[in-house]
Write a structure and sequence with these properties.
Mean pLDDT: 77
Distance between the termini: 99 Å
Number of helices: 8
Strand order of the largest sheet: 4-3-2-1-5
Radius of gyration: 30 Å
Structural class: alpha+beta
Largest sheet: 5 strands, antiparallel
Order of helices and strands: HHHHHEEEEEEHHEEH
Strand content: 15-25%
Low-confidence stretches: 56-68, 288-297
Length: about 300
Amino acid sequence: MGEFGAALGSFYETYRTAINIAVIVIAAGLLNWALRRLLMRTVTQVVRGVKRAQDVDTTSEIMAAPYVNARAVQRTRTLGTVGRHVISWTVVITALILILAQLGVDLGAVLTSAGIVAAGLAFGAQNIVKDILNGIFMVFEDQLGVGDVVQINTISGTVEDVGIRVTQVRALDGTLWHVRNGEILMLGNSSQGWGRALIDVTVDADQDLTHVSEVMVAAARALLTSERYARKVTGDPEVLGLESVFGDRATLRLAVRTRPEAQWEVQRGIRAEIRRAFAEEGIVLSDERPNLPGGTA
């Protein structure tokens, strides 16, 4: 046993630096994995707790006014995503410093040189600094979160990842857009507060528009009381009035306040229900009229 211990000690002394570096790399990997796992477990527990308290399956169904719990879930997920990046960078930088120390590098001189180099690179790295700062402000000001439906400049889609420098947005056609945070000058978020379903219906102008409006509202109410849609709306449907008149056509607009991200599904459902109700009442939509010689379809 003594000879084995001596041989092991001699082996360690011979390869001290390589062994220490290997230990640092392995420990850094394990620490990064453990911290990220702990963070995501905490995020999952927060999300499950909110959903359990509200007795829902999806975040968009959370019944809270003014949607504080829903935003808490989105904000927790976003901070969890950013936190994973911060943990990885912190662990990597710390491991590099420890490895340099094992190699006998003068860390004081390195840090001093790094400060000088950083000052020199600051002029050429302004865009990177801008990206990072803008990303931090977007997260802490709750401008967007993972899972939000947003429009950034000309890009519309669902936020899949919010990084320190880049935000990833998945478009409706499946394209994954990588948007630099510093380039986000205008941002529209459809997942905050509430949404509004807007349905425009065009009919013959010579029809009884009051009756048409009543049928539209009745059809919308019948649909929105169903189990599928009841949780997705927060207001009563109403006809805002005559939106436009063009020749022998009149367009009425119906609106109903919805939960965030539900407006599109509600719009599609109401359109189908209005079409069915119109067929029963004998109300003809303008695009259903037959083509007349010299007339407008």
